[in-house]
């Protein structure tokens, strides 16, 4: 079992940057593939990014590719989402999630992730 706590959200101007953190406890993040999802008001939760645990492969939603980067610091037991060139369309609650298995299919399906954080709000103003 692993507990996840997101932080780093806030209000940023169009074109600005934020770095979200997902601090894990209870287990080491090396046991998990880690993902980021987001949910805007009135919309379903959508996949943002994923980092597999063994291969190091990364996956990104088309809407964030080239702007967002997922990474991990094993010494800090923390996963990050660096967000650059932010747009108002990026406004959402961002969640980190852990998947016990490396996989290349169904990675955008939230049901494949075993553990979730509480979320952190990101608001991008125009």
Instruction: Count all strands and give the number.
Output: 11
Approximate strand percentage: over 45%
Structural class: mainly beta
Q: Which H/E pattern describes the elements?
A: EEEEEEEEEEE
Give the low-pLDDT segments. none
Determine the mean pLDDT. Answer: 96
Helix content: under 10%
Q: Cα distance, first to last residue?
A: 40 Å
Shape: globular
Explain what the structure shows.
The protein is mainly β and 126 residues long. It contains no helices and eleven strands. It has strands spanning 3-7, 10-13, 18-25, 33-39, 46-51, 58-60, 68-73, 78-83, 92-99, 115-116, 120-125. Strands 2, 4, 5, 6, 9, 10 and 11 form a seven-stranded mixed β-sheet that branches. The protein has a four-stranded antiparallel β-sheet with strand order 1-3-8-7, with no helix packed on it. The model has no long low-confidence stretch (mean pLDDT 96).
